[in-house]
Amino acid sequence: MYSFDVFDTLITRTFLRPTNLFVQVAVDIAPSCREIDAASFADARQRAEMRARRQAQPRDDCRFVEIYAHFTELGQLGVSRQAVMDAELAAEGALSRPIRRNAEHVRRLLDSGERVVFLSDMYLPGDFIWDLICRHVAPCDREQVLVSGEIGLSKHSGRLYRYLLERESIEPGQLIHVGDNAHSDIRVARQLGIQAHHYTEILPTRYELRLDGAGSGAPSGGAGLGGLARAARVGVAGGAGLARVACNVVAPFLTVFVAWLLADARRRSLDRLYFVARNGQILMKIAEAMRREGDPECRYLYGSRQAWLLPAVTEVTPSSLAWAWDRSMVRTGDDILRRLEIDNPAVREVLSRHGFEGEHLSRRLDEAALKLFITVLAKDPIASWIAERARARRSVLQGYLKQEGLLDEERWAIVDVGWALRCQHALKQVLADAGSEAEVEGYYLGVSDEHLPLEEAGLCHAFVRAPGSAVDGALSAAWFFKRSTILLIEHLFTIADHASVVDYRRVGDQIRPTLKLDSPASDLIAFARELHEAVLAFTRELAATSGADPCAAAYRDRAFAVVRDFCMRPEPVDVQDIAWLGANRDQSHAACHERPLASPLTWGDLISMVGAELSPRRGAAFAPRSTWLAGSAALSTPTVAWLFRSLTWSSDLFRGFRARP
Question: Which CATH architecture has domain 2-203?
């Protein structure tokens, strides 16, 4: 026989502190009573419960009606006792959510014919709890629900267990109990000889605790982001590790970003927002879940650096091709040719005359070799071949952009993760070549201090700006633009379920994107879709929460602080289920540049880090086997992890001194 605790084992609420429910009740009854202070009401409600419990002795628990019989402060509010009781039950029902994994376990047991009962140390009416179980867990008979306030016996004292064993005529060893309370559900049950299983996933994570209690930005009922994040986390399918990262870290941050951009686009009366693939896929899903009447239309625009930068080249010069050997990417001849889409025998034959052949093209180019390589590319015949390729690609891209409405008269903006504004600049160039006079602008998750001049790229709006950047931003931080953070944002936070866009093709009277041939593996697609669903579960919770303002500074700051902790100081539990994900900093997404997000650091890695710090070309000597060093350190031995943190601290301190005037 199986028994389950109810609250925080099968059902939870959208807040971390149960007393926040009373704050919500105060808000709900405020329109029909005299002036009310929500915090004072919550304190008085708690005192009434304590008085009722004392008066209930020798019974183990009190009833709901007894609590309100001791709620003497209600007389000062000019509202009936029954009205407030109804409001509390209504709030309980509205803010209750299923704990999916345990609810599914109960349904499997019932489907297999097992006997299941539900035990709750709770003052709420038994019929009310029965209704919650039927609604959130599984239909059951009323006699399967045993409530301490109703029976007068509790799990805490052990008397409710004894009552059940006697009623069912079973031995303690025949009962398997599941619950979250270490004393009532575990210690007491085991002392009686009952098999007890401790459910601990309901415990708030460090991120949920940090998100909670967002001050003036909290919903009117006092349920901070932490409670919403936990309700979403335990309410979604998939692994616990994925749900933790998605609902605690990714979802709050992306949701406040999208809320910010929608509010600004609404204020500026934009007609349309184009969410650029692939990173814009989850952002658009969030926007569609949050949109309200009058907001800009949301569309998905297939694009990428590989699909847009080359077509934007109208004149072949070293400066117009500089994106192909940007220092953030690997600088080998093979990689540069691949980005420029001219890796063919004719080009290689010309390059061989200048000493670039065979293994020379596969090695990193030093500054002198890179300068010569650029000179050869920018001269005929290679320059003409690049121009021809760019012209052909530009013609098809312009047709796609026209098809998608970017040449219409409506006011629009693109939405993407951002960084240096190269794609926006490329889009501006391509549209201008098509004769469009539209003002190109964009909303970005982040814009670095190395972005293109705004007079070249056009108007942009950054949610996070790097210190020293010429753009305004809601937030500012240097750590957000570390390479590891950027790769986390691109390959985890905004992961998509389709391959990158490399080109466009005409199909009948339509122009369609061409996706990279080696499409994501099935496990990667499944991960992306599970993460999207978990993120949207949080978004829907936030959108449905009365009084919640995702644009509030308190929400924004707490969500950003959680991202910083996750990126810079992750714990093993944060990393272990996502370490396998691949990250690729090259715009061509060539497989040879893919690395896992994280893997345990070795002593050799630490030595390489020291060498990189001492090298005149800082960072050039260190090519880690993974892309997220802080995540890798979290998976390493305690000694290696400590040394990594020490090296990182020393490096940051040294750079801080160097940056001083």
Answer: 3-Layer(aba) Sandwich (3.40)
